[in-house]
Structure formats: structure tokens, C-alpha cells
């Protein structure tokens, strides 16, 4: 990574991560915004305020990256739309601060191969993966045993299956500990988010799936644990505040100060953990199976889930339709590995098309929302 001034391309500047990143960048004179991108919201005002020349709304994000020549790409786009930008940065060895987990999950092996060829830094922004990255810093790989990712359990952690069938979009968007964009908030409620994170951890840290555990930890204070071969486990603790992992990635390796308060342990802190309920939240199991199956199964999982979440947010399906929809699509596709981006885009489109068909089917019990 270049020393001195770091030119930052911020993709997804209007989103939850993007807005927090803008605040952090404004506090650091060594971070210079060189590009801004959004999906559909205008960026003129933001560009003028931050003095950014290269701006793009929608379209091919690699055009913007080519033109703006960043030292660091913060990919905070939501969904598969971020995949080209992720591959662009990895291939060129440009530092990638990755919030857009969907791109790494969908591109999987292609992304890892591009990362190896490019030889650059991939800094996770997802809080759990940033936590693992920090616990692993400076450790010899052979000392590592396994990883534990924590999940808040979402707003429906204590709901029965019957209650889950009647939750509303508003209920699903009321996350107990994190404030985030709508897609990841719904993913947190279904546990698809933890499923995506499981696959993200596999590709980021190169561990087999059986070495990555997920536990529910409602307070979201412990973000992840790394277990070592001698029986020790290192944990990463902090308030659930995305400014910490965003700042860590943007200022790496300086670990700049943030306004986030330290944990007050003396005030009392009880840390509770429990196993996730695979019956009520099948998307975690489906993600693990898709990850273990490999090829384009993770891409299909992501595509089907994106369609299902959009359908739920639009009121076309109910909450408990999301997992069966994804399962249906995974059963239809053959997971043939993608040899290049064009084949990956094809696999994504195929799974999306199938998911749209499933979501348009009349509900079996006739009581869909
Ligand atoms: N929010 C969190 O706390 C959090 C935590 C961990 C990981 N993440 C991950 O970070 C990513 C962003 O999450 P978020 O919560 O910030 O989402 P969000 O609030 O919905 O924002 C999404 C951003 O992506 C932009 N976008 C959508 N489609 C695009 C396209 N085709 N080209 C360029 N930009 C596009 C949106 O632009 P418009 O506004 O114009 O639509 C918006 O700026 C997701 O992958 C999420 O899983 C988020």
C-alpha cells in the first residue's frame, strides 16, 4: 500500500457503511477521496462537499476505478453488483477494504485466484472478519485450529416457527444491536447473513468449513474468536459499531483512534452464547451446504437469497418463504464452477431467474402476504 496520502475509491457511498466511511475519511488528512459511486442516488452534493472529481451512479464500476486510480477501494456496495469491483482490485493488487461480502461469496474461487495473482491486501470490513483478521495478525498459520463467528441472532431469536410466519417487514428491519442497510438487516433476521459470513470466512482465511463455527451471542460484544492448537482462544471484543472495523481497514496498519467508547467492564458485562437453531433458521445450514458443495453453489445461494430478500421487502413473499425459496433454487442448479467472470455472471443470472420463478409461484397454503 502506498505511504503518505492514500487515494480512496468509495463504492456504495450513500449506504450505511458508505456514510460512516465518509465521516472517518473526513477526520484523516492522509485519506483522499478520489471516487464515489452509488446505485441510483445522485452524488453531486457529496462530490462537491468532498471535492471528488470521479463520480458514478450505476453502471460498470470498473470504469470509475480505471479512471480514478485508487490506492484503496472500499467496496460497500450491496449484493452481487459489487463483484466486478472486487475482482478489479484483487487482480491488480490494489488494497481492497471489503464490506461487500456477497461479491467474495459469489466469486469465491475466482476471487481467491485473482487475489493470489494480484498479491495485494484484502482487509475485511465485516466486523466478525475484521475481528478474526486482528486475532490472526502475526500468528504462524500452523498454530491456528479453528474460527468462531458470532451472530446476534437477530430480532426473531426467540420467535417460534409459528410466530416467524407472521412477522412483518418492519419487524424484520428492527435489528436489536446493529444499524445497517435493509438487505443485510433482513439477512441478519433469517441468519442468511451468518451463512454468507461463513462462506466469506472460508475464502478469506482459507479454512475448511468444519473449522468454522457459528454461535449466537445476542449482545454482539464478542465479534469473533480464533482457537489455536494449544487450546487457547483469542477473542475480539467491542461495542457493536461499524466505525471500528471501517476505520481499521481504512487506516491499516495504523489503527487510528475512533470516537467509539471503550468497553466498561466494571459496569457489568455478561457474555452469553448459544447454538443457532437450524430448524427455525435453515439458511445457515443451506449456506454451509452450498459452501461445502463449492463451484457456483455459493453464487446461487447468494443470488437466490438476494431475490428472496427483495421479494420479502416488496411484500411478495412472507418471511418463512425465504429459506424454502433458496433451497428450491439450490436443488435446481448444478453448481458447475465458473472459469471466468462471464460464466459467473451467467450462473448468477440463472439462479436469479429461477428464484424469480419460485417467488412468483402461488403459495402452497394460499396465505402468502
Ligand atoms: N451496514 C452494516 O453495518 C454492514 C456491516 C457489515 C457488512 N455490511 C455489508 O456492506 C455492504 C453494504 O451494506 P449497507 O448496509 O451499507 O447497505 P445499504 O445501506 O443498502 O447501501 C448500499 C450501497 O450500495 C449502493 N449500490 C447498490 N447497487 C449499486 C450498484 N449497482 N452500483 C453501485 N452502487 C450500488 C447503494 O447506492 P444507492 O443508495 O444509490 O442505492 C448504497 O450506496 C453489504 O454487502 C453488507 O452486507 C454492512
Salient structural properties:
2 domains; six-stranded parallel sheet; alpha/beta; 10 strands; binds NADP nicotinamide-adenine-dinucleotide phosphate; 369 residues; Rna Polymerase Sigma Factor, Chain: A; 44% helix; Rossmann fold
State the gist of this model:
The chain has helices at 16-26, 44-50, 61-68, 83-92, 101-118, 127-136, 161-164, 169-172, 182-190, 192-205, 243-251, 282-293, 297-313, 322-332, 341-360, and strands spanning 6-11, 31-38, 54-57, 72-75, 95-98, 122-124, 144-151, 212-216, 222-228, 233-237. The protein has 369 residues and is α/β, with parallel strands linked by helices. The strands form 2 sheets. It has a 6-stranded parallel sheet with strand order 3-2-1-4-5-6, with helices on both faces.
Description:
The strands form 2 sheets. The protein has a 6-stranded parallel beta sheet with strand order 3-2-1-4-5-6, with helices on both faces. A 4-stranded mixed beta sheet has the order 8-7-9-10, covered by helices on one side. The chain is 44% helix and 15% strand. The chain has 2 domains: 6-125, Rossmann fold; 135-219 and 275-360, Rna Polymerase Sigma Factor, Chain: A, CATH 1.10.1740.10. The longest helix is centred in the C-terminal third of the chain and has 20 residues, at 341-360. Helix 4 (83-92) packs parallel to helix 5. It contains 15 helices and 10 strands. It has helices at 16-26, 44-50, 61-68, 83-92, 101-118, 127-136, 161-164, 169-172, 182-190, 192-205, 243-251, 282-293, 297-313, 322-332, 341-360, and strands spanning 6-11, 31-38, 54-57, 72-75, 95-98, 122-124, 144-151, 212-216, 222-228, 233-237. The model has no long low-confidence stretch (mean pLDDT 96).
